[in-house]
Amino acid sequence: MVVAEGTDLVSAELKPAILADVRAWVVSQVEQLREVAQAVSARLGHGQEIRSTCPVDDWTFTPRYTDGVCPLCGYQPPGVDAGNGWPGPIDWFWPILGTLVVASLAMAVLVIVAYNRL
Known about the structure:
By secondary structure, this protein is mainly alpha-helical. It has helices at residues 15-44, 93-117; strands at residues 52-53, 60-61.
């Protein structure tokens, strides 16, 4: 790298070459990120969702998110599985309460140990 004496500036001849290298690197990183995003999207099955149109109210919906029925009138399209793959909705109260109790007990133990060591 050619640097002018007394300054920290790069010479004018090298600026276009450096900028071209940086641009090529950024473009390659963006392409790699795009490939990863497409692979993850394909793995998760996005973009291939079943969509239905209700003949009653002409509403287009995704049965996966509406328990297999039209959210406006309750129409169920033929051949659509209403199951969502989970055994049921999760009640997060007890797991979060248990986590809070365990964290509180751990903090209490740490406070007692720290107090007794001083």
